[in-house]
Amino acid sequence: MVNKEHFSKQFDADLEEARTRVLQMGGFVEEQIERAMEALTTGNDELIDQVIEYDHRVNAMEVAIDEICSQIIVRRQPTAIDLRMIVMIIKTITDLERIGDEAQKIARMARLIYTKDRLQTPRFTEIKHVASIAMDMVKKALDSFARLDPNSAAQIVRQDEFVDEEFRSIMRQLITFMMEDPRKISTSIEILFVAKAIERIGDHAKNMSEYVVYMVKGKDVRHVTAEEIERKIRE
């Protein structure tokens, strides 16, 4: 009985360590997005370097958490809800690592934009607006993960639909700019890459929120509408 209780407590401790590490990784990734957007709007070389250089730390965090999860599976052989927890963690850190990649991409595009002779400083109003929504989605997804609360998933899916529409609008604007003035083609393409990176950040945040629904409810809500997610959460 004592051994079983000890086993259970150690198992819970292992899971909690993995969850804590995920939240630490998530916090770091949030900072990377913020730094990347500041670098984009200011052209700060130090920030650009920092975002690019720190991407390896995000990668290292993913590898470390993945190893913890592998050890839990080998030692504890989790089943049912515990196994769903491990699956959620592994999938979440994959999306967080990819968000880090997108932040690095934004920083690299900022470097290109600010190291060439430009006719004028690009307007980032729309980009900053959609980025603020994507960052809010990441924050909500991490909060949902921390509380194991699936109720924000539908809202995040709706935000993702808005981010997708904003990306399409920005793309149409940039195409118009390029058609009107071929001298703007290079910078417009770089801004388009930034917009696409932000759109992908939103996609990854949506994925993370859906993993929480899977963990708590045991239901796969990928590729369904926000209304369908709400229905499945209520069931």
Summarize the structure in words.
The protein has 235 residues and is mainly alpha-helical. It has one domain: Methane Monooxygenase Hydroxylase, Chain G, domain 1, CATH 1.20.58. It has seven helices and no strands. α4 (125-147) runs parallel beside α6. The chain is globular and about 65 Å long. It starts with a helix and ends with a helix. The model has no long low-confidence stretch (mean pLDDT 91). It is found in: Cytoplasm. It holds the Pfam family PhoU. Plays a role in the regulation of phosphate uptake. Belongs to the PhoU family. Keywords: Cytoplasm, Phosphate transport, Transport.
User: At the fourth CATH level, what is the homologous superfamily?
Assistant: Phosphate transport system protein phou homolog 2, domain 2
Secondary-structure element pattern, one letter each = HHHHHHH
Q: Please estimate the helix content.
A: over 70%
When the domains are counted, the total is: 1
- Give the end-to-end Cα distance, rounded to a whole number of Å: 36 Å
**Which structural class should the secondary elements be placed in?**
mainly alpha
Keywords:
single chain, Phosphate-specific transport system accessory protein PhoU, 86% helix, cytoplasm, Methane Monooxygenase Hydroxylase, Chain G, domain 1, PhoU, globular, phosphate transport, mainly alpha, 0% strand
Task: Please outline what is shown here.
The protein has 235 residues and is mainly alpha-helical. It has helices at 2-42, 45-76, 80-114, 125-147, 153-180, 185-217, 226-234.
How is the topology of this model organized?
Elements: H1 2-42, H2 45-76, H3 80-114, H4 125-147, H5 153-180, H6 185-217, H7 226-234
Helix pairs in contact: 1-2, 1-3, 1-4, 2-3, 3-6, 4-5, 4-6, 5-6, 5-7
